[in-house]
Amino acid sequence: MTVTPTPDDHSPEPAPKGPAGGHPDFQAVPGRIARDPVRNPHLTLDDFHAAYAVAVSTGDDPALDGLLLRHLLIEAARTGELVSLRYGDLNLTDATITVRDSRLVRAYRRPSPPEHVATLTAHAVERGPRKPAPPDAPEELRRAGVPALTAEDPVFYRRPVDTFDAQGFFVARRVRPVTGRRLTSLVARLRQHGAPELTASAVRALSIRLIGSMGWETEAARMFGLRQIRTTMVDAEAAHLRFGRLKRYLFADLPVDPPTDHPSRDGR
Question: What is the dihedral of CA 200, 202, 207, 208, to 10 degrees?
Answer without folding.
Answer: 110
